[in-house]
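Exercise 7.
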Amino acid sequence: MQTSTPTLNPALRDFWLTPARNRVLYGGRSSSKSWDAAGFAVYLATQCNIRVLCARQFQNKIAESVYTLLKIQISRFGLTNQFVITENTIRHKVTGAEFMFYGLWRHIDEIKSLESIDICWIEEAHNLTQEQWDILEPTLRKEGSQFWIIFNPR
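Solution. The predicted structure, written as tokens, is:
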């Protein structure tokens, strides 16, 4: 399999590299928002021990989440041997970086009790309710933690 060098979409480079608590990407389908987020998240996981909460409103099975996208990017960049990929988590073998996957609708109370989350990546955020945001926002208490909020127009 041909591997690619991890790169950021040039149009989003400043977006990812400028410090921010809330990173909001809004755009149409096929605009590379989620692909770029997955690529940057994989890069960060190879560099430092981070905990990434990957969330979406409805998630009936893990394949509906960004789990598959992260697996594709890990493989695409030739990093498969650096990660332990289980049925519901992804972890970097050296840094200990970890990806967790939750559906907000059914698991918002579980998410409240999660500790040491560095990044909360909310995919399809146009479905996020005010009540859910009111729970999520104070859940990320760790200094330097971030929200990656990605959504499409309706």
